[in-house]
Design goal:
Elements lengths: L1 H18 L28 E12 L15 H10 L5 E2 L18 H5 L4 E8 L6 E8 L6 E13 L4 E16 L5 E6 L2 E3 H8 L3 E2 L9 E2 H6 L6 E5 L13 H21 L4
Antiparallel strand pairs: 1-5, 1-11, 2-8, 3-4, 5-6, 6-7, 6-8, 9-10
Length: 274
């Protein structure tokens, strides 16, 4: 009698095992999923000897930034999905020094976030049965490859307690390419700002492509913390509250970006005597 009850049990075990997904590789990858972020050290205002706020832009079309467009799971999908689901708070974009202040009145509703990049178009086509023109409504959803840039708001500072020159990312904003009804490019649209400390735990759970070693996958949080990306400065805090593009264009803007970066490097270098 026991054998009769044992046979269905064994069949159930076999079916459940066969129904599980097979491992796509030689081992199961769980390191990134179980990873926890390393908390930042507390910084006292009294220990800040010098600080500067800068805004920079990551262009995913640059060769060094191709990992941002990793088709298996692009960063844009991770960030936007979390914002739409309410796992992240999205803040309205502003220009100038007010960009990404993360104020309560700037919080965007999730339904408004979900509509970004979506559109409804009407077109005419011939009906296959009546052979008459009929109007067709087409719904267009956000395409991840249209998010080609990311703005970063960060603070550079010198900590007297540890005698270190550090940088902390404050906010991240995805940038969407905008096109008119005829498909002509009309400019970039900053979708919203995300408070980076809230984004870190989510980025730590998703792995990014590592071109140097497939076995050693890094998380998206590692990419930002180790600054494994190429970018250029678009603005620094200034008395005129204006970005670089308002007083320099084309190559002059890139030269100004490099000048700001070199000034910070020289400041750190001049702090020490050899």
């Amino acid at each position: 009698m026991k054998k009769i009850f044992l046979i269905p049990f064994l069949l159930l075990v076999v079916i459940s095992v066969s129904a599980q997904d097979v491992i796509d590789g030689i081992y199961e990858k769980v390191t990134t999923i179980e990873k926890e972020i390393i908390p930042y050290d507390d910084i006292r205002e009294a220990d800040i000897f010098w600080s500067k706020r800068v805004w920079r832009t990551i262009d995913t079309r640059e060769k060094m930034n191709l990992i941002f467009a990793y088709p298996q799971l692009p960063l844009s999908e991770i960030v936007h999905t979390a914002a739409v689901n309410g796992d992240l708070t999205a803040y309205t974009n502003h220009t100038g020094i007010a960009s990404g202040q993360f104020l309560t009145e700037d919080i965007m509703a999730t339904d408004k976030v979900g509509k970004i990049g979506n559109s409804i178009d009407t077109t005419w086509q011939i009906n296959a049965i009546t052979l008459e023109d009929e109007q067709v409504i087409v719904s267009n959803e956000l395409e991840w490859d249209k998010i080609v840039k990311y703005k970063i708001k960060e603070d550079w500072f010198f900590d007297e307690e540890t005698s270190t020159f550090q940088v902390r990312i404050i906010g991240v904003a995805p940038v969407l390419e905008s096109f008119d009804e005829d498909g002509n490019f009309i400019g970039d649209e900053t979708m919203y700002w995300i408070y980076y400390p809230d984004l870190r735990p989510i980025l730590a759970k998703y792995e990014a492509y590592n071109p140097g070693n497939y076995a050693m996958r890094v998380s998206w949080e590692d990419i930002f913390e180790a600054r494994l990306f190429s970018s250029y400065i678009t603005e620094e805090d200034n008395v005129y509250d204006r970005p670089i593009q308002e007083y320099a264009t084309a190559l002059d803007a890139l030269y100004e970006s490099d000048k700001i970066k070199n000034d910070m490097f020289k400041f750190e270098h001049d702090l020490w005597s050899f």
